[in-house]
Amino acid sequence: xxxxxxxxxxxxxxxxxxxxxxxxxxxxxxxxxxxxxxxxxxxxxxxxxxxxxxxx
Length: 56
Known about the structure:
This protein has one domain (2-49). 27% of the residues lie in helices and 30% in strands. The longest helix is centred in the middle third of the chain and has 11 residues, at 29-39. Strand 1 (14-20), helix 2 and strand 2 (40-49) form a beta-alpha-beta unit. It has 56 residues and is of the alpha+beta class.
């Protein structure tokens, strides 16, 4: 699950993290975004999309 991203990947593992149409389905979106930041390398890019305009 997205909430456990850091359990599977170490810090600064990726240059890019992509999440399309997922964030509105997770229990704790703040935790998920924080975990994305942990596994992202310095200067990296998070690409996140959602159809739920008012969700975040």
